[in-house]
Amino acid sequence: MTVSTHILDTCRGRPAADVRVRLELHDDGWRTIAEGRTDDDGRVRDLGPESLTAGVYRLVFATGAYLGPDAFFPEVTLAFRIADGSAHHHVPLLLSPFAYSTYRGS
């Protein structure tokens, strides 16, 4: 497991289930390398191959379907750099209707 994520809905105080998530690599533009959906616990536990090359990646969260048609953030994109492609990278998203934050998790 190289990349995982989870989404916590900080407004409702619960995980955000059934949100589509893409993992993309930047080589000559952005290229999708994996896709998934959050489970009932708001997690995508295993996203992508067993190892990744060093480089710049991003997670793209389709938050509009979860937040509704008037969502201020219809999509959240988090770019990050992977130096060690064999290490685990957990990138959580804390989401509310008008704000979001993230961090490198464990």
How far is it from the N-terminal to the C-terminal residue, by CA?
12 Å
Share in helix: under 10%
Choose one word for the global shape.
globular
Q: Write the H/E string, N to C.
A: EEEEEEHEEEE
Tell me what portion of residues adopts beta-strand conformation: over 45%
> Which structural class best describes the helix and strand composition?
mainly beta
Beta-strand segment tally: 10
Largest sheet: 6 strands, mixed
Annotation field: number of helices: 1
Q: Note the quaternary state here.
A: single chain
Radius of gyration, CA atoms, in whole angstroms = 13 Å
Provide the low-confidence segments as ranges.
Answer: none
The pLDDT mean sits at 94
Question: What does the model show?
Answer:
With 106 residues, this protein is mainly β. Helices cover 5% and strands 50% of the residues. It has one helix and ten strands; from the N terminus they run E-E-E-E-E-E-H-E-E-E-E. The protein has one helix at residues 63-67; strands at 3-9, 14-15, 20-26, 30-37, 43-47, 55-61, 76-82, 89-90, 93-96, 99-102. The strands form two sheets. Strands 1, 2, 5, 8, 9 and 10 form a six-stranded mixed sheet that branches. A four-stranded antiparallel sheet has the order 4-3-6-7, with no helix packed on it. The longest helix is centred in the middle third of the chain and has 5 residues, at 63-67. It is globular, with a radius of gyration of 13 Å. It starts with a strand and ends with a strand.
Layout of helices and strands:
Blueprint: E1 3-9, E2 14-15, E3 20-26, E4 30-37, E5 43-47, E6 55-61, H1 63-67, E7 76-82, E8 89-90, E9 93-96, E10 99-102
Parallel strand pairs: 1-8, 1-9
Antiparallel strand pairs: 1-2, 1-5, 3-4, 3-6, 6-7, 9-10
